[in-house]
Amino acid sequence: MSQPTLAASLIAGLCADRIGYAFAGGYIAALQRLLPEAVHPDRANPLSAPAAFCVTEAAGNRPRQIQTKIEITANAFTLTGSKSFVTLADHAQWLWVVASRGEINGRNALVLAGVERNSPGITFTPLPALPFAPEISHAQVQFDHVNGAMRDLLPGDAYTEYVKPFRTLEDTHVAAATCGLLLGQAIRRHWPEDAIEPWFSLATHWLSIASLPPTQRATHLALGGAMSLQKTMLEQHRALILQDGEFAARFTRDAPLLNVARSAREKRSQNAWSALQPQSQG
């Protein structure tokens, strides 16, 4: 099965010279995989341009913590609120915003709405660079009565249909981009053939995992296994990685990025394993 966004992640990694640039390629590709329906027959696909996913707020990113509001009329919507940590916001031409319609049946009803970055009422405040992958920018984004078209209000619950799947898609695409980064480095630095071949093999693993539904338990287990394998291969080939001093310095600096959200990934794997255990008969 063709997986163009995963292939794009691998290519981004192959072309990169550091984790940060590989991450950017994987992140953008993951958004393209998440939102293929954001296409309108009368204009270009908004996701053909760089985009950002606006979820996290000052209180957090759980459904009950989302306070950005959306008011919906017959033909348009209006966004008001603030996102505290938006990755690649300054490069995005489109912002996909998780917003609340208010409480419905005791739950915070969330939707996903898209607005162009130059829409009136949007303010960007750059955040300081992180100590790892400083090339990846982050920003606070304020929405002050920002108007959007109904065609850019996507169907379904934003948390279950978009936020949760994106966590798995981002992990998959960024890990694939990292695989591409190491494969490219191995080829350019003429590693031994028996050290290069495993990275080719792992690339095919990522292509296979990308074909799986992101919310299924089997996907979480396959993702966990592939990431463990990639971690092992990184350790096995550390001496080769360190041969290139400039690359090694950047890789060592940026390696903490690979552990971001590790606890969430481990929890998903644990939940998947728990669901596979036979239920006791009482």
| DSSP helical segment count | 8
Q: Which sheet architecture does the biggest sheet show?
A: 4 strands, mixed
Domains counted in the coordinates: how many? Answer: 2
- What order do the SSEs take from the amino end to the carboxyl end, as H and E? HHEEEEEEEEHHHHHH
Give the CA-based shape. globular
Average pLDDT reading: 90
Q: State Rg.
A: 20 Å
Strand content: 15-25%
Q: Report strand order across the widest sheet.
A: 1-4-5-8
First CA to last CA: what distance?
Answer: 44 Å
Indicate the low-confidence ranges by residue numbers: none
Q: What structural class is derived from the secondary structure elements?
A: alpha+beta
Describe the protein's architecture and organization.
- The chain is an alpha+beta fold and 282 residues long.
- Helix content is 45%, strand content 21%.
- The chain has helices at 4-15, 19-34, 158-188, 193-210, 217-236, 238-241, 245-254, 262-276, and strands spanning 51-54, 69-72, 76-87, 94-104, 107-116, 122-126, 138-149, 153-154.
- The strands form 2 sheets. Strands 1-4-5-8 form a 4-stranded mixed beta sheet, covered by helices on one side.
- The model has no long low-confidence stretch (mean pLDDT 90).
